[in-house]
């Protein structure tokens, strides 16, 4: 009976992760699992800073404090960001993880095919508790794309809605 309850909780947690856009590749990104694989010495400081942010995630969400992770490929930026988002989800904060290519693809597709769904998607981008944008800045940044991303980021900033 206890195992059934644990299995049910695990399935519910996986559904929560999927609703937040955390797909299978990143579902195991937690601080404990990252630490168990040994954090590379060159990113130990960043690991500690992100973990400290996540330990106070409720206060950061209330204050509208986001988190920016910068660095070259292979420095655990996405893994650490997802671990922080998972802490937010555990604390009951809504969250959404999107790569920039996925965000842009969804915006373009919905804009051309379903205006109602497009409006709902944008509303979620603007109002979700924590928005994790992976590879922000790597997107094509001319015209409509730049304006749209700037509008979303600026609105969240002004409304004190954190972005990681």
Describe the model.
The chain is mainly α and 164 residues long. The protein contains 8 helices and 2 strands, in the order αααααβααβα. It has helices at residues 2-19, 31-36, 44-55, 57-63, 77-90, 100-113, 115-127, 143-158; strands at residues 95-99, 130-134. It has a two-stranded parallel ribbon with strand order 1-2. Helix 6 runs antiparallel to helix 7 (115-127) and helix 7 (115-127) crosses helix 8 (143-158). The mean pLDDT is 90.
Strand content: 5-15%
Radius of gyration in whole Å, from Cα?
Answer: 17 Å
Strand pairing plus helix content: what structural class? mainly alpha
Helical coverage, percent range: 55-70%
Low-confidence stretches: none
Mean of all residue-level pLDDT scores: 90
Main sheet? 2 strands, parallel
**Shape estimate:** globular
Give the number of DSSP strands. Answer: 2
Strand order of the largest sheet: 1-2
List strands and helices in order, with pairings.
Layout: H1 2-19, H2 31-36, H3 44-55, H4 57-63, H5 77-90, E1 95-99, H6 100-113, H7 115-127, E2 130-134, H8 143-158
Parallel strand pairs: 1-2
Helix pairs in contact: 3-5, 6-7, 7-8
């Amino acid at each position: 009976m206890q195992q059934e309850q644990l299995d049910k909780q695990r399935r519910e947690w996986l559904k929560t992760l999927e609703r937040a856009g955390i797909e299978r590749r990143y579902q195991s990104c937690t601080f404990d699992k990252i630490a168990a694989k040994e954090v590379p010495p060159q990113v130990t400081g960043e690991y500690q800073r992100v973990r400290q942010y996540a330990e106070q995630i409720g206060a950061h969400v209330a204050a509208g404090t986001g988190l920016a992770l910068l660095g070259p490929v292979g420095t655990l930026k996405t893994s650490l960001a997802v671990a922080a988002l998972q802490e937010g989800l555990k604390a009951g904060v809504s969250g959404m993880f999107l790569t920039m290519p996925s965000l842009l693809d969804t915006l373009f597709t919905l804009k051309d095919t379903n205006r109602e769904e497009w409006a709902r998607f944008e509303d979620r981008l603007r109002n979700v508790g924590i928005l994790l944008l992976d590879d922000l800045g790597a997107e094509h940044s001319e015209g409509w794309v730049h304006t749209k991303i700037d509008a979303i980021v600026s609105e969240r900033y002004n409304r004190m809605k954190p972005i990681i």
